Amino acid sequence: MAKKASKKKKKLKTVGTSSALIAGSATNSITPNVVGVKPVLEKLTQPISNTSKDLLQTASILLAIATGIAVLFGVVMLMLPGGSDAVPAMGGVLQTTAPLKTTQIVFFLDILFPITFGAGFALLATAFQSRGNRPVVRMILTALLFVVLADFSENALVFKALTGGETHTVQWPLTVVKYAMLGISAVLLSSIILVQGTLGTVVMIFLRFVFPFSIAALVAGIGGRVGGDVVGAIFPVGLLLLAVYANGLAADKNGK
User: What is the pTM of this model?
Assistant: First the structure.
């Protein structure tokens, strides 16, 4: 009887040891995965990587240049003959003619502007790219591509019209597409940017609400020439905000 009890006890000990080995094996098989995932999760939750900081710094420079070009548009409007008509016409919201020299200067500025603004805006969006928001970033970049292509096409048609040529019916659709895609890209960007401090909140509000409503009013002609001038003044202010915001994030020493 005692021998039987001893065998039973031995069997239970063997089963317990086997269970412990199985549990240990399971733990060891799971642990490497958890350890491997942890750095990835930490990487994804980092506010600003070094690569993103480089993109933000370049975006800040390009957006600052775009701000300067926008200010030059205002100077042209005030200083050059026919400038007050040529600038809004090049923006697609007016049909008129202007002196050749003024038209050439405005055309020159409006070739540089989409390049600097489009590239700066695209780099700003890309700086906030993560695994979770890649589809949104792709949508922003696609919308910006349409904006730049529509703007260049519109500029070519407006330049011809400003110098006394024929006005094409496709010009207005290009203008609407340009501003609509620009508004969409701004709203999408507002959903992925890092809202940090008061400036971050202001930038988010500008992108999500102020800018889309302003350009919608501009395209619809609400407020007439005065309304157009107000929106024209808001735009460089918004660009400057984006440039300062991007520069601030790039220079943030607390970012990882």
Answer: 0.81
